[in-house]
Design goal:
46 residues; mainly beta; 3-stranded antiparallel beta sheet; two-stranded antiparallel sheet
Length: 46
């Protein structure tokens, strides 16, 4: 299982998540950041 990183869409905290998830919830501010995926892999958080 691979781990990826994205910045929270609200507070900009660096978040770690398992590849393949569609979103990740920030433990600091509870904002849910969507993970954009393309045929080439992870693009960025939105």
């Amino acid at each position: 299982n691979q781990i990826a990183h994205v910045n929270c869409g609200n507070c900009k905290m660096l978040l770690m998540y398992q590849c393949g998830v569609q979103s990740v919830k920030c433990a600091v501010c509870s904002f849910v950041t969507s993970i954009a995926v393309s045929i080439y892999g992870i693009v960025h958080g939105t």
